[in-house]
């Protein structure tokens, strides 16, 4: 006789159940040897199958009763809420000034600076107060500070005041932020740059 015997373990059989299943198979094997034809009515087989079902049921109930147990079809709502990101630190006054000058308005190439560059820098500072200048430092000993000094001198030769300020120099970007005299103090006191106008005033204009 051929008898079909299946074990329902709900995809979560622990180690004890696995050992018990092995024991059941051994019992069935010995029973088949004794009777030469395995039958579902064999007392040992019936007892073993009932015991296995009880163990499977107990394992499933214990897993479902554990805290945090989730079914496969549970929604993401059962998981803990994500921790919100910490608020960003406020920008420094100098960083606001750097961002106020959105892009470089003057560029110095590999040939170096000329009187024309100095005159352009003077005019731009008069119009914008702060000016970003992109510099190729090959002709300035690879130094943004040296480039600032030469450009400042050229601007003065074209009528600019003597106190043009170096507000920031960022080596990674090869950019210098020039400032009109007195701009650093205005930045540190919060007077520059001015906050953006409210939407209502902008629309009225």
Description:
This protein is of the alpha+beta class and 205 residues long. The chain is 45% helix and 10% strand. It is built from 7 helices and 4 strands; from the N terminus they run αααβαβαββαα. It has helices at residues 15-35, 43-65, 93-100, 115-128, 144-157, 183-188, 199-204; strands at 106-108, 130-135, 165-170, 175-179. The chain has a 4-stranded mixed sheet with strand order 1-2-4-3, sandwiched between helices. Strand 1 (106-108), helix 4 and strand 2 form a beta-alpha-beta unit. Helix 1 runs antiparallel to helix 2 and helix 4 packs across helix 5. The longest helix is centred in the first third of the chain and has 23 residues, at 43-65. The N and C termini lie far apart (97 Å). Mean pLDDT is 77; it is low at 1-12 and 35-41.
Sum up the structure in keywords.
205 residues; alpha+beta; four-stranded mixed β-sheet; 7 helices; disordered N terminus
